[in-house]
Amino acid sequence: MEKTVKRSKCPISCSLDIFGDKWSLLIIRDLMFFGKTTYGEFLKSAEGISTNILAARLQSLEESQLLIRTEHPDSKAKVLYKLTEKAVDLLPMIVEIHLWAEKHLTITPETRALIQEVKKDKEGFITKIMTKLSERI
Amino acid sequence: MEKTVKRSKCPISCSLDIFGDKWSLLIIRDLMFFGKTTYGEFLKSAEGISTNILAARLQSLEESQLLIRTEHPDSKAKVLYKLTEKAVDLLPMIVEIHLWAEKHLTITPETRALIQEVKKDKEGFITKIMTKLSERI
DNA sequence: TATTTGCACTTGCAAAATGCAAGCAAAAAT
DNA sequence: ATTTTTGCTTGCATTTTGCAAGTGCAAATA
After folding, report:
1. A1-84: what CATH class?
2. Stretch A31-49: mean pLDDT
3. Residue B104 CB-half CA count within 13 A
4. B77 CA to D1 C1', in Å?
5. Interface pTM (ipTM) of the complex?
6. Do B21 and A20 touch (CB under 8 A)?
7. Which range is least confidently modeled, A1-15, B13-27, B65-79?
8. CATH 1.10.10.10 residue ranges for chain A
9. Which of B7, B9, B97 comes nearest A11 by C-beta?
10. C-beta atoms of A14 and B105 within 8 A
């Protein structure tokens, strides 16, 4: 859990120290696009993260201030995770990953159609999503 | 070395299966921005990758067709690694990582100045670098 | 009120990935 | 002919990950 060790001062390296693993961006994706907000919902995602890894990643993302744990309005037993502005600002990067994947990987037709929409008005899409997310912070 | 196992059909997940680790993007960075092309040059980078990990990553990136091993013009003992178009197409994402890092992380003044330049004309910068890299493929 | 269920984790242990130091073969330099 | 450079590989300790089971608190149910 030594997320604090910076390997260099390079901005890419520092960024990877924060979210450069197989799971962190998927949790952010779940919050950003799929409206997931709880531990149990993250667990159900298709990739199948294990419980201890999810707990560790949530803690690390919280320490990096990419998300915050808040009280859930429905129940004290639940925890509501929210993206911070710092996390929402990752959207442009995530959009570029989509565009790259659409060009170079095998993508399902539905996903491809969606990404085509993004391509038509990238800035508009980013603004729309970021506005929506900002309202929830 | 099981890079072939896809966790889901999600484009982000598939992308992370390819370059979602602490080292792959740093090797691509070295090729993209620092003109490094050989094993020995990658080894010298500030982050200090170990020899076996570097060898494994180079192989995995080659398998993912993000780079190709070619003969070095200077010597048969050397291997010249080149970015593919698939890797060059990661530049917009890498630029967005820089912009995010400039906003949210502690960046050295020199790096910050450079990123400011990118911000003035993001498309122009990307086109410039991509053209330069494409000439070398 | 007692009991069961749901939720967010924690724990123990095996397996895999990483990191470090040393070694190694082919090519190049001396 | 010998040494150095280059791009790795190997062995082993450490760290991280993955899986299964368990825990404690809150909420729902009987």
Report:
1. mainly alpha
2. 97
3. 20
4. 20
5. 0.95
6. yes
7. A1-15
8. 1-84
9. B97
10. yes
